[in-house]
Design brief:
Layout (H helix, E strand, L loop, with lengths): L13 E2 L16 E2 L5 E3 L5 E3 L3 E6 L8 E8 L2 E7 L3 E6 L2 E2 L5 E2 L2 E2 L6 E3 L10 E5 L10 E6 L5 E5 L20 E4 L2 E3 L11 E5 L2 E6 L2 E10 L2 E6 L17 E3 L7 E5 L19 E6 L2 E10 L4 E8 L9 E4 L11 E5 L2 E5 L7 E4 L23 E4 L8 E7 L2 E6 L3 E5 L13 E6 L9 E3 L2 E5 L6 E7 L4 E6 L12 E7 L5 E6 L4 E7 L6 E7 L13 E9 L6 E11 L2 E9 L27 E6 L5 E5 L23
Parallel strand pairs: 1-2
Antiparallel strand pairs: 3-4, 5-46, 6-7, 7-8, 8-9, 8-17, 10-16, 11-12, 12-15, 13-14, 13-16, 14-15, 18-19, 19-20, 20-21, 22-23, 23-26, 24-25, 24-27, 25-26, 28-29, 29-30, 30-31, 32-33, 33-34, 34-35, 36-37, 37-38, 38-39, 40-41, 41-42, 42-43, 44-45, 45-46, 47-48
């Protein structure tokens, strides 16, 4: 019998798991491979070689891995945010954002270099980047820590702030150069909390939540003008109205420094009374038919707090109708956030893990449940608790045309109006469990009409999509043919939509996964591959590890760009770098533009032309500022010369 070697033309199925090796009866079997590393399956069938990664910067601290957060105002105004040790740092157009540069006028050759820059304004410990120095070029395009600051001079330490920069072997300083401080915004998240932060964006404001911190917003008003503030919510949200005999008596109906006295601890924090962690908590209090509200500013005892009255309490009589605020350091803060139907929805705090709260329509920081006279309009805030048989903490929320999708530990829910012809409102809301797979604490991504989330164990990805034939949602297993690919679990997701839809996933062991995905064409297509970055992450030779992933539009707005935090072993030290995956090579690209080096950098060193002459015979002679290093026959490009034509 002759031996047949059929042509294999389709690798779109990606890497298959061992349980599928013998499934020759499956149509998809012909599109799969046993191992697919550093390639990406395409919808058209070929496996496309993954391009390399470009080095951008070292992270702020080499002792704590940061987390990447995308910020996309538009395709031309997109930033990558580094949530790192004590500070946010910002990247745009593939570069670290710096403050206004200061001019350098000198740099010494010494065991610890001293840089001269008049009225630089730096402080000890600042991180700076130096560029454009002539002569002592060893300082250029490097990040340093400032030390021993004087009015017009400062010394440099290495990027870790541990070792003085010894310039005695450097070239002598000639002229020029600038130094700029890295732009940063301080925060109070701890290292262990970085990957539990959830976020959503509205124009120039990024809303951030974490169960141990008050909800915050990171606002941009300029390229180097960002502010991080706790959100000062208006009038809510609140727990249920008090049903005990406990009364609250204010010392005044308006003003600050007002004393609020409870008749007992019953009904307050499960009978434990007021706590020091209640500072900042809201209380809504009713007198007759009028509601007012206050904010706790100090705790005196379990029955006495000091408050600021934000809406009048009418009088100083004892009041039995009152509601404590949902969020506080006592009860916990929201763990998930999303926009839906022009409301800001938060939910999943420690003491109310199944509760969701939506702001007033179009007023994202106002959670008033009614007017002061008790009137409830459709635009008022929404509060709802998922009615499950057991307690299932909310892990994520996302917006869908069929409703607000909520992922919990025990299943996935749809929250929508009870009457479909109307908008979601305080009196028109319902929630039903759509699927019962359970969700991991990983923020999902969306592709077309599908929401892709990580199942509770972390080992499966599912896409939650609406199906007309069942008038409901299904959540297909995206790992059914590649059950092995997620290893011990996935910790983070990001989605690339141009030039192809690819879901990027970080595995617990630092392997980067790429899942080509498409549900909106004639057939459902999924193809997995592993991306093993070049280089090592430790002294044992373990491959470089990917610790975080996020996607923003490229600087030219023509494609999406995948950014990574990569752990590498460099000069005997474990370090984390910020890198991004470069452009996928296309058939129309010049071969010289191919880039397949991981953790690399490109170096362009144009020689400054300071003069030129043209002989009678037409020969052009160029004079450069420094030794050019060219050889006869080299091809060069000349640009930017004034006083001549045709360059």
């Amino acid at each position: 019998m002759p031996k047949v070697s059929p042509i294999i033309t389709n690798f779109g199925g990606g890497e298959f798991g061992p349980l599928v090796y013998g499934r020759v009866d499956s149509d998809r079997y012909r599109t799969g491979v046993k191992v697919l590393k550093n390639y990406v399956p395409t919808l058209q069938g070929p496996a496309d070689r993954r391009p390399g990664t470009q080095f951008v910067a070292r992270v702020k601290s080499q002792y704590y891995k940061p987390r990447l957060i995308p910020f996309e105002y538009s395709t031309t105004q997109a930033y990558m945010i580094e949530l790192g040790a004590s500070n946010f740092r910002f990247y745009k157009d593939n570069s670290l954002i710096l403050n206004a540069a200061k001019t350098i006028t000198g740099a010494t050759r010494a065991s610890q270099v001293v840089v001269t820059s008049a009225a630089h304004g730096f402080s000890n410990g600042d991180k700076v980047v130096i560029t454009g120095v002539s002569g002592m070029t060893e300082l250029n395009n490097r990040e340093f820590v400032v030390a021993n600051v004087a009015t017009n001079t400062f010394e440099l330490l290495d990027i870790d702030g541990a070792t003085p920069v010894n310039s005695s072997g450097f070239n002598a300083y000639v002229s020029g150069g600038s130094v700029a401080k890295v732009y940063e915004v301080a925060h109070s998240y701890s290292f262990s909390e970085f990957f539990e932060v959830k976020f959503t964006q509205s124009a120039d404001v990024l809303y951030l939540v974490h169960p141990s911190h008050p909800p915050r917003k990171l606002s941009r008003s300029g390229h180097t003008s960002w502010t991080l503030t706790d959100i000062d919510f208006l009038d809510g949200p609140y727990l249920s109205t008090n049903t005990t005999t406990t009364t609250l008596t204010p010392s005044a109906a308006t003003g600050t420094g007002v004393t609020l006295t409870a008749s007992s601890v019953t009904g307050i924090n499960n009978g434990s009374g007021f706590q020091t962690t209640d500072v900042g908590r809201l209380i809504r209090i009713k007198e007759g038919s009028t509601w007012g509200y206050v904010k706790i500013t100090a705790r005196v005892s379990t029955t006495v707090v000091t408050v600021t009255v934000l809406s009048t309490l009418t009088n100083t009589s004892a009041k039995s109708t009152w509601r404590l605020g949902v969020w506080s350091a006592t009860t916990g803060y929201p763990s998930s956030v999303v926009f839906f139907e022009d409301r800001l929805f938060l939910g999943g705090c420690t003491d109310s893990p199944q509760r969701i709260d939506g702001s007033r329509s179009g007023d994202y920081e106002n959670f008033a449940p009614s007017d002061n006279d008790g009137t409830i309009a459709s635009s008022h805030a929404v509060g709802y608790t998922l009615n499950a048989n057991d307690v299932n903490n909310i892990r994520w929320k996302t917006s869908d045309e069929k409703g607000l999708l909520v992922g919990t530990v025990g299943g996935e829910w749809t929250v929508k109006p009870s009457s479909q012809s109307e908008a979601l409102s305080p009196t028109n809301i319902s929630a039903k469990k759509a699927t019962s797979y359970g969700s991991a604490n990983v923020q999902p991504v969306q592709s077309g009409k599908s929401t892709i989330f990580v199942q509770r164990s972390g080992k499966k990805l599912r896409d939650m999509s609406y199906f007309y034939d069942v008038d409901g949602f299904r959540a297909s297993d995206l790992n059914v043919l590649s059950h092995h690919i997620t290893g011990d679990g996935v910790t983070q997701l990001a989605i690339m939509k141009e030039p192809q839809t690819i879901v990027w996933a970080v595995r617990e062991d630092g392997v980067l996964l790429a899942m080509t995905y498409e549900r909106d064409i004639e057939s459902f297509k999924v193809g997995w591959a592993r991306q093993i970055l070049g280089g090592t992450s430790d002294s044992k030779g373990t491959h470089a590890l990917v610790e975080s992933v996020a996607v923003i539009p490229s600087a030219d707005g023509l494609r999406d760009e995948v950014w990574l935090v990569v752990k590498r072993y460099i000069d005997g030290v474990e370090r984390w770098n910020i890198e991004y995956i470069t452009k996928f090579f296309e058939e129309t690209d010049a071969q010289t533009d191919a880039y397949f080096l991981d953790g690399g950098a490109t170096y362009d060193d144009p020689r400054l032309v300071v003069g030129f002459s043209i002989s009678v015979g037409g020969t052009v002679t160029l004079t450069t500022f420094a030794s050019h290093g060219y050889s006869n026959g080299d091809k060069v490009r000349v640009s930017g010369i004034t006083g001549g034509t045709g360059w």
